[in-house]
User: Which sequence fits this backbone?
């Protein structure tokens, strides 16, 4: 979605249901797909998706959406919810609870991105070349994440910035590094030859 | 919809950012910055998972990227690798299992929409649970409060879950209209339309999936909206349209007869074309109206009204770009066939209810309306197309333009896929319907204009009576604005069907002019239920904020010291072009008191890159924003060391 248009819709959505409807229509299939690619449970995907959109609406109405760009924020919240889910017993968290509620403030997250691991496996399975598949797995976690989000999830650049919490410049750098690292694997010069 | 490409690191990369790290101000010292992570020294770096940590550390920790891709021998290989990854991603997403699993269930989508609708309709903050208001979504809540929230929220969510199945069917059927339906290739609002598919015909109802090969015929009293991806083709009464190509990026339609308004929204690289006989009209992101009718002298006549952006026409005699605001007429299929006749859109067309209804529909969807901007919109609430004029009165039952999905439009009997040209005369500009002004309501609304630099803010009291349909805010250069709608000699500035929306902005004022405003409350049928008195405001130009400066590494400007009500945010724009003619990046500064911001991070630039700055004050409106003030003089520059 055009960033300027999205910004206008977010502003309108504070008081205009139709504006949020436009945002909902645009992002629902994409956010749901994003979550579904990281879970194998349709009920869980629906629960997480519903949570994202309810929290998105609350954030808009409360004026706490950080950049008035909803897309990246939704993907970020969805990613957090997917990561949090396997650590909790089934049914322990109702849909209205935010992903970070279960963690102690300031606590380190003990494990990696479970959801992205699933997505990486799906993406890797579609790669034709074994070297590329191996290279993908040898990237650092941040590098692999940006590759998966961009090329598998097809996030736009503004969405990537929001999802990763980076600026456009930082996104460019991160993506460039990931590509160079992958290319280095293919050239047989190592993973991290940035 | 267009997607942005990742900027190449070698270029100046404009971005829209929140000013997260402003320089210290006199009143508020800056918080201490996080210490930067140590720069990696070895070629092999193990970077820990930084799942949700602030990004700066990891991005700055690694070795620098050689930015000059053009001079990099690995450049072509990287481009090829990126292409391979993109192709793999498409392939992975398009696998049958993925397509099925990653598509939300329609019942779920409808149920969630139904559940969100009451929240979305609530005025700001009023509809939120107190818990959510006290603890914004971004911060973790204390564990005890989180537990209370879970307990309190579990029951209603469980009830909602049980109700999903029941509600979903009803929601799909009723299609409340509060939240629009999900984009898809399917029919939207229809009335009196017939779908011809595979040699058979059936009534076209809202929600019917559409695919290539389908043909839609609309009764003279009907209408149909076809949702084609993010684009829409809205068919007027008497239209006959066939879908020749329909996939995620390409839409190709054949307008066989009648009138169709096309609102085109395409992904990057997509195309949208409408064929009328030997002529093909192609758009890449625009709105246009096509009308194909028999020509009195034989053959057929096609008229294009290009309402927004350009349309390319190709046909006998070559191709041509048609500019926004142009009208094109062409006759073909007879000895009298001629070439394209191009001119401005006739003034009479700007009062055409069909165009105005479509413009209003586009406005409601957030799209610019191009050549129709500034035209006083007629009272149609929904895009109810005006039937094409016919010689004989129609015997078809007339469906309501906003018929619900359960309405069964009466299909036109048809036994052939080849449409027979209808004896439709050349259309003439049809006068706007003029609802009789009703009554003389007492002024029950207060209206308060506030002149800002660059625009006028208007707020009025909430209407509390019954029968409310919408507010309309009218403007005139004369104080004589009647308490009636439509009101001659006025311009519609804003319209809202949300009762709690009691403010608007007029961003089209000219410095030195005095404008007069009146707010009306309309009920069903555009009857006037209440009106404000006429109030005036003076148009002011954009404020000169004086020069900005750059004291490395900060951009500094003078504080905006005018009415705070007119301030939404500062926008610090930067560009490698001192005239800001090329790519422009923007840093958003939402605090009025902040008058400096750091120059963009060096990671996006090369040594020796120079960028120029200017600062704007803008006021955000429901339709975008207007410019309140801007720095003047030569834009200051910063060169990266």
Assistant:
């Amino acid at each position: 979605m055009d960033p300027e248009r999205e910004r206008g819709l977010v502003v309108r959505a504070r008081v205009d249901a139709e504006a949020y409807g436009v945002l909902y229509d645009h992002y629902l299939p994409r956010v749901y797909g994003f979550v579904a690619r990281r879970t194998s449970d349709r009920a869980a995907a629906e629960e997480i998706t519903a949570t994202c959109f309810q929290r998105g609406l609350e954030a808009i109405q409360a004026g706490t959406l950080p950049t008035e760009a909803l897309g990246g924020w939704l993907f970020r919240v969805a990613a957090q919810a997917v990561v949090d889910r396997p650590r909790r017993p089934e049914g322990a968290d109702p849909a209205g609870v935010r992903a970070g509620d279960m963690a102690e403030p300031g606590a380190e997250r003990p494990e990696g991105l479970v959801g992205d691991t699933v997505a990486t496996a799906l993406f890797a399975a579609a790669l034709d070349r074994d070297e590329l598949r191996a290279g993908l797995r040898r990237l650092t976690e941040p590098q692999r994440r940006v590759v998966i989000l961009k090329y598998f999830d097809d996030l736009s650049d503004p969405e990537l910035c929001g999802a990763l919490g980076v600026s456009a410049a930082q996104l460019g750098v991160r993506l460039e590094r990931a590509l160079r690292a992958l290319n280095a694997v293919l050239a047989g010069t190592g993973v991290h030859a940035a | 919809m267009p997607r942005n490409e990742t900027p190449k690191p070698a270029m100046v990369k404009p971005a829209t950012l929140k000013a997260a790290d402003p320089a210290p101000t006199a009143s508020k010292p800056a918080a201490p910055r996080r210490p930067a992570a140590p720069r990696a020294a070895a070629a092999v770096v193990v970077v820990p998972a930084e799942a949700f940590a602030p990004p700066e550390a990891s991005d700055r920790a690694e070795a620098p990227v050689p930015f000059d891709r053009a001079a990099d021998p690995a450049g072509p290989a990287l481009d090829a690798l990126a292409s391979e990854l993109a192709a793999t991603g498409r392939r992975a997403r398009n696998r049958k299992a993925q397509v099925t699993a990653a598509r939300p269930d329609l019942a779920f989508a409808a149920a969630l929409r139904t559940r969100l609708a009451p929240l979305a309709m609530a005025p700001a903050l009023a509809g939120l649970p107190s818990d959510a208001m006290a603890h914004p979504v971004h911060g973790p809540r204390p564990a005890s409060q989180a537990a209370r929230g879970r307990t309190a929220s579990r029951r209603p969510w469980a009830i909602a879950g049980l109700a999903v199945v029941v509600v979903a069917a009803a929601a799909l059927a009723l299609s409340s209209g509060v939240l629009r339906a999900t984009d898809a290739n399917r029919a939207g609002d229809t009335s009196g339309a017939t779908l011809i598919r595979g040699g058979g015909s059936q009534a076209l109802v809202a929600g019917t999936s559409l695919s290539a090969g389908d043909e839609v015929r609309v009764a003279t009293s009907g209408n149909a909206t076809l949702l084609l991806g993010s684009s829409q083709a809205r068919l007027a009464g008497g239209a006959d349209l066939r879908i020749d190509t329909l996939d995620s990026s390409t839409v190709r339609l054949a307008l066989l007869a009648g009138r169709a308004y096309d609102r085109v929204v395409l992904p990057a690289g997509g195309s949208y074309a409408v064929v009328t006989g030997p002529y093909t009209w192609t758009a890449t992101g625009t709105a246009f109206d096509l009308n194909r009718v028999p020509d009195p002298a034989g053959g057929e006549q096609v008229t294009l009204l290009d309402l927004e952006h350009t349309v390319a026409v190709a046909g006998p005699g070559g191709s041509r770009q048609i500019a926004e605001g142009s009208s094109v007429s062409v006759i073909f299929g007879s000895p009298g066939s001629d070439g394209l006749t191009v001119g401005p859109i006739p003034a009479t067309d700007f009062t055409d209810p069909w165009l105005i209804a479509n413009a209003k529909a586009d406005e409601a969807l957030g799209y610019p309306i191009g050549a129709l901007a500034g035209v006083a919109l007629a009272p149609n609430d929904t895009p109810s197309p005006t039937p094409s004029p016919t010689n004989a009165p129609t015997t078809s039952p007339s469906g309501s333009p906003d018929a619900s999905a359960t309405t069964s439009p009466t299909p036109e009997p048809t036994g052939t896929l080849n449409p027979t040209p209808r004896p439709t005369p050349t259309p003439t500009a049809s006068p706007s319907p003029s609802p009789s002004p009703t009554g003389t309501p007492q002024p029950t609304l207060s209206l308060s204009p506030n002149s800002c630099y660059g625009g006028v803010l208007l707020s009025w009291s909430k209407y509390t009576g019954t029968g409310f349909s919408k507010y309309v805010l009218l403007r005139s250069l004369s104080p004589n604005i009647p308490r009636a709608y439509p009101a001659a000699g006025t311009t519609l500035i804003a319209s809202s069907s949300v009762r709690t929306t009691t403010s608007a902005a007029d961003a089209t004022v000219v410095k030195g002019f005095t404008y007069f405003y009146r707010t009306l409350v309309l009920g069903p049928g555009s009857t006037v239920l209440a009106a404000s008195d006429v109030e005036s405001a003076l148009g002011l130009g954009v404020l000169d904020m004086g020069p900005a400066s750059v004291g490395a590494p900060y951009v500094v400007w003078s504080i905006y010291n005018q009415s705070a009500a007119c301030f939404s945010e500062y926008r610090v724009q930067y560009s490698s072009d001192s005239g800001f003619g090329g790519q422009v990046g923007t840093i958003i500064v939402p605090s009025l008191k902040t008058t400096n911001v750091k120059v963009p991070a060096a990671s996006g630039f090369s040594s020796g890159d120079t960028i120029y700055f200017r600062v704007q004050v803008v006021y955000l409106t429901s339709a975008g924003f207007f410019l309140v003030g801007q720095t003047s003089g030569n834009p200051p520059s910063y060169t990266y060391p």
